[in-house]
């Protein structure tokens, strides 16, 4: 985290926010950043500091008269929250601002959305325990929509129903264990080695009062952050049951579109890079993450459509991502091996520019 470019502690960042007459929170469009923005917004509301929250895939410096701009996952503010996971860092600031409203479960869900696990004091504060089964925000009948896993049943409600029937699933502890084992085996069938590690996020989840499991909560955060940011902000602010229900519907649609896009993708394998060309309405960030985890034989996975691309890699990719976008008069942002870009051109234009940049 930094304030005006210098490293700062949570108490100093909180002091900047507390003294402001109006705070603008600008966050990237992902579940971790959304959770972080919600934590900060709740704390500001508790101490009666006016605020506004906006999200964008690639945030720009806002033209605003706010006394303080808090950048979450990007570098366009006076206070910058950029450590991974973002929600854990924001939780520390929120505790300094208003400890009684700092929600450790939201912070933990944000961490899971970022691909991490809650640990240490945060895990103790959450007080959740693992249980057998799979990480979905409703019940296993909705497993087809999960974007924590991509397997033969993903995106296919009938296939999930057949699977549950074959396993004689009745909700018991033994049945939940059978389902988790079956999902894990399906996810690694024909997949790259990293799938075995990736699918661990989808099984033996932490139980959770909101959205059933912590992994399910995280999955919903990622979906609404990309598809319905207004609903996402309301969700992070815990504005009621109707918001949660709308978020679940968004999650179902998001997951189905992501899995359908992966199956319909035009794929290509290059030296170190696996490319999935998808239709324009595909949720490319989720597609890139799932392709990277469960389909790509290469260490770098790219999901691309006209004017947009997302990249997932086992290495830092911010420099080549930005260079490729810049070549095509676009913009990009990345952190923790994941990034997204906008550009002026075709998927082929971007793939060529990205391959040249990553090889440079």
Model description:
The strands form 2 sheets. The protein has a 6-stranded mixed beta sheet. The chain has a 6-stranded mixed beta sheet with strand order 7-8-9-10-12-11. The chain is built from 14 helices and 12 strands. The chain has 360 residues and is an alpha/beta fold. The relative contact order is 0.10. The protein folds into 3 domains: 2-117, no CATH class; 140-216 and 237-260, no CATH class; 265-359, Diaminopimelate Epimerase, Chain A, domain 1. It has helices spanning 10-18, 31-46, 86-98, 104-113, 120-126, 157-166, 173-188, 194-198, 214-227, 229-236, 241-264, 284-294, 318-327, 347-359, and strands at 2-3, 6-7, 23-28, 51-56, 68-72, 79-81, 266-270, 273-277, 300-305, 308-313, 331-335, 338-342. The longest helix is centred in the C-terminal third of the chain and has 24 residues, at 241-264.
A few lines on this structure:
With 360 residues, the chain is of the alpha/beta class. It is 46% helix and 16% strand. A 6-stranded mixed sheet has the order 2-1-6-5-3-4. A 6-stranded mixed sheet has the order 7-8-9-10-12-11.
